[in-house]
Structure formats: structure tokens, C-alpha cells
Amino acid sequence: MDPHPPHLISDCLIHIFTFLTEDDLISASTVCKDWYEAAETPWLWRRICLQRWSFCNLAALGSDPVNHSWKRYFLQRCHLEKNMTEGRTGGYTCKSLRGHAGRVVGLVYLRGNSSLRPDLSKSSAVVCSASADGTVRAWDIQNGESLWCSPVQSPLTGIIADEKREVIVTSDSTGNIKTWQGQSGQELASFSTDSSHCTLLQYNIDTDWFLTVGTGQGSICTLADLTLTKKSSLMVCDSFRVNVLLVSPDKKWIFAGTKENVDISPKVIYSESLTSPSEDEDPLCQSVPVPGCQAAVFIPTQPARLAIIHHTGPRGNKALAVFDVSIKKMKYKTEIQVQQVESFSLTLCSSSSEILLEAKNSNCIVLAAGAQLWAYSLKGALLASFKDHTMPISSICVDCFRVVTASQDLSLRVLTWKNDRDSGLTLESQYHLLGGSHAMSRGFTHVACDYSSIVASVEGNNGKDVLKAYSFTS
Question: Cβ–Cβ contacts within 10 Å for residue 146, how many?
Fold first, then answer.
């Protein structure tokens, strides 16, 4: 009897190979036939993929079953992330998207490449942009093609998207809110707010679709379904523009505030009292105990944890406070509880008119002011700071893989997250992408990104803005 049957040798090798890195595993596969067969075991590569990424889908490799191997998935996705991390020539393509005859006021992904389910076989991202020329345009960013353009209307002031239903929502300078079918550009419905300023917030509660609109008069109006049926209205900022409007990850809370008056505290509203209002009771609302609101964000990995940057004194000093929002139901009434859990001072340039704030996870926030970028823990520890730009940062985009900043210096800066064994989560500046010539342009104004692309708007000196689309290859 053979004391070393082949299957026993293979099982032992596979077990030993679980201790190897992917590079070592590839090297081991070149030693001999037995090692090659063991190193090619699908279970090993599936294990490596799931250790690196929380979700993997072999269907992302395309319809050809020959390509459906865990090793191929790992190598192809690593190649894409390497290109995104290094930004070298040949690792991406850049398309200029021209067609707008005015300033771009916003851009959103209608259909993007998700980091949870990345499409590695092909990219079919669609971006929609709104302009002061009164049109909405949809773009195939990989091919650099315009898919559709809406009829000309009043100058647009805002745009958001519901990727799940492929619906676009816009606001214009006369206060008209419109929904658009994303695939064709067909207008679905409209609603008039009679406000020259509107802030848009779309969210879904279970299977129900809602849109809350902040107005220039200080109120918020909640609309239901794609027909834009009015459900409720609430005054929150007493004649000042509602320009901060957020929904919590658990969809139970709406946050509304204004940057125009440092004496008006922002408010949190129980969303159910806006979407299903009672005739006998006012919407359930509570002020957040901070003076003013310069920027705010809900922490994405928490049900209802809120970070707010606010004023702390007459000299324009600022602080960041973190609150947990909950509801307390008693026998005869229901109350909103806003409990502060952290607070720390910020050293920001007081002349900065715009503060941008985003959150990565339960313990990391990113903020930009002027030409600087900072990453903080929620306890106030400075994790990283950068001054890569020479002019003010106009927009930032934060996801689980990277941070992209757009600036008036006509450059995009790409920074990537790294989990260091000793120092924990860190942010590293990697490279920059240029947007063109200062002779033709004034700088970047907006930026958005999905897993494998970055799209930003460039303000043209001739009043005609251009989109720049950077698509990374896998």
C-alpha cells in the first residue's frame, strides 16, 4: 500500500498554502505539478478574495464561464485597484464631455459601478449633470457619449439621483421640482415650491419613495412617490434658507439646518411624522443644542449618529460635536432625545466660507476647508492632514476605498485608505489628475466617483462647463 496517497499529499499542501500570501502562492505554483494543482485550488483563492473584500461576485467577470475562477477574479480586481491607487498613464482613460451651454450646478451617478458588486468585465456607468442652461444631460462616461438631453427650462439649481429606480430629481430657479426617467430622460412629474432656492433629499423607507425639499423661506416640504404628492410641510429655520438636509442611515431621522445664521440651531425631525403625518399632531421635532451649523453628516455605519461643525465663539472659532439621536416613548407622549457623545475644537481658517464634511465609517470623518484636508477620529484625534492643493477645495467624494478632492487649482487629488497593522486606519495621498488649461478653465467645481471611475465638472472661462470622466481599467 502506498504510504503517501496523492490525495493526502494534496490536502497537506492545500493546508500549508493557507498560510501563504497571494504572491507566495503564485510563486509556489511554479515549483512542480503537485504544487501547481494545490495552488490552483478554487477554495484557496475564494478564501483570499473574501479576506480582502467583504463581498465578491464571480459574475462580475462576465458571461464566459471559462473566466469564472476565483484566482482570475482576485487578479483582475487587484489590477483595477492598483490602477486606481497609482493613477499611471495607461491605467485609465479620460473623456471630455461637452454639451452644456452654461455652468454645471451638480452631477450624480445614475448607474455606477458598486464597490460591493463591481463589474470587472465591462463598465457601463451613466452620469447625469444639471446646468444653469436649463438642461439635464445623461452621459455614457466610458464612451464619452451623450445619451439624452432634457428640453430647455428655467436655470437648474440642483440635482440628485435614485440609482435603484434610475430616477433623476432636479430643482430650478423658479422653485419647480421635477422627476425624470433616467433611461430616456422623460419627465415624470413636477411640483412647485415657489422658492428660488431648494435643497433636495431623496430616501426610501421600505418600498416607499420620498423626497424632502428645503426651501429659501426656511421650511421643508415632504413629497411622496414619483408623482410628487405633498405629504407635509414644516418650518425649521425661520425665513433663512435650508441648505443642510440629511437623512440618517436607519431612515428614522431628517436633519435640517441653515448656514446663514449662527444663532439658529439645526433640528432633527422624526421622519415618520413627515411621511405619515397626523392631523391632530405637529411633526415630532427637536433642536440640536449647538449654535448654528456650518456642516453636518450622519455616520454611515451607525443607525443615527450625527457629526456637526458649529461656531463656538465671537471670533469664529469652530468645534465638531457628535450626537446620538433616539426616540423615547412614554405613556402620554413621545420625545426625541439628542445626546452628545463627543466634542472637540477645530483649527480652521476663519475666512473659509465653505466647510465640506464627510464620514467614512464609525470612527473616521473627513473635512475640507480652504485648500486643506483633514481626517479625524470621532474622539478628535488627527489621523492625517494634507495641503496638496494650491487653491481652495470645492468638492470632495469619500468612499470605502479612497477620497477624491476637487479644487479651483484645476486638479483632482486622489487619496486612498490603508489599514496599517500598527497605526490602524490611515489616509495616503497618491496622485493628481489634471483638468485642462487655466487659459480655458477656472477650476473644478464638483466631483463624484464610483468604484472604477471619477467624474468632475470644470468651469469654463467662456461660461460653458465641461465634464471630465476618468475611467480606470481592469
Answer: 13
Strand 411-420 with 167-172, pairing: unpaired
Question: Residue 1: pLDDT above 50?
Answer: no
**pLDDT beyond 80 at 275:** yes
In sequence order, what are the beta bridge partners of 68? none
Q: Which amino acid is at 170?
A: T
What gap in Å lies between CA 393 and CA 373, rounded to an integer? Answer: 8
pTM of the shown model: 0.88
Strand 136-140: give its sheet, edge to edge.
104-111, 126-131, 136-140, 145-149
d(CA 319, CA 278): 37
> How far from 175 is each of 191, 221, 326, CA to CA, in Å?
8, 12, 33
By CB neighbour count within 10 A (0-12 exposed, 13-18 middle, 19+ buried), where does 154 fall?
Answer: middle
Complete DSSP assignment for 218-282: SEEEEEETTTTEEEEEEE-STTS---EEEE-TTS-EEEEE-SS-TTSPPEEEETHHHHS--SSS-
Q: Which helix (H) or strand (E) holds 140?
A: strand 136-140
Determine the pLDDT at residue 4: 52
Q: In the predicted model, what is the mean pLDDT of residues 371-391?
A: 92
